[in-house]
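Re-run with default settings, no changes from the original entry. Doing this only to confirm the output is reproducible before filing.
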Amino acid sequence: MKTVFHSADTRGHANHGWLNANHSFSFASWYNPERVHFGALRVLNDDIVAPSMGFGKHPHDNMEIITIPMEGILRHQDSMGNSSEILPGEVQVMSAGTGIQHSEFNVDKANELKLFQIWVFPREKGVTPRYDQQKFSPEGRHNQWQQIVSPNPDDEGTWIHQDAWFHLADLDAGTTLDYTVRKPGNGMYIFLIEGEATAADQTLGRRDAVGITDTDKASITAAKDSKVLLMEVPLEW
């Protein structure tokens, strides 16, 4: 087993006033040659958007984009004709493929919008763009892994064009969860959203992460009540 530890305070940071963002991997004006990606995982942004503010229409292509709101309401519109609101407990997926344009705004006039946006390199370029949005029950991730993303349209959760699996878990203090990779050779990136836990002999605090490779199994033990995001991704694709 090999591990790489990314503490929360080593992330890139940019405060634009309307947007306060932390970047786990190189993004926009922040570049760290040792933090460009973890396998197919290219972007993990921890964003806080001010009331009534957001991202105007902008393009994407050949990227799988996963958005997970934590607080507030995200208003989405895109060039495929989709217009929707995404709430905490829901997950949005866009396969940018041959190209899309979209906008994202905080519809609340008084409260901040907090979300994670994640980009994953697709296994193939030039796919037809697609959109999906699904709601997940809190009970489904209490002391267990709740699959929110997979490569399989018929599997639990939503899906993307990559051999990647994403899981959430809300752990009570003292709980241990084991995880086995779905595809041999994949790596695991464990991001602690809240709480305190240990994974691969690494102590994690709020927004810390550990990348795990060269093994098909890992476990996480919560020292305090914790929220976890585990992303299994190909290391080569």
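The chain has no helices and 22 strands. The radius of gyration is 17 Å.
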